[in-house]
Amino acid sequence: MSDGKSIEVEGKIVAVLPGTMFKVELVNSNGHTVLAHISGKLRKNFIKIAAGDTVKMEMSPYDLEKARITYRMKEPSANPAFGGPRAGFRRR
């Protein structure tokens, strides 16, 4: 939101739905699930999100059932020296 009243939360992707929508379970709650969509920057930069990924989201204080995914968290087990599973990938 532009006025800075959004709530930042972290969650884990539970299900991938059609139309770039996701069911996300919040990390610090007791099983609360929200419906989330991808923000414009993630869509523009072709950031892929799959089930099981940890994401950072913004929620409106007026509707706590919907959210906007703003950041996909890095996997802690990825070895930075190896480069990850897409090390050889180069966009032309």
TrEMBL record:
Gene3D superfamilies in UniProt: Nucleic acid-binding proteins (2.40.50.140)
Protein keywords: Initiation factor, Protein biosynthesis
Boundaries of every S1-like domain copy: 1-74
SUPFAM superfamilies: Nucleic acid-binding proteins (SSF50249)
Pfam families: eIF-1a
Residue ranges that the Swiss-Prot or TrEMBL entry lists as coiled coil: none
Protein name: Translation initiation factor IF-1
Lineage: unclassified sequences, metagenomes, ecological metagenomes
GN (gene name): infA_6
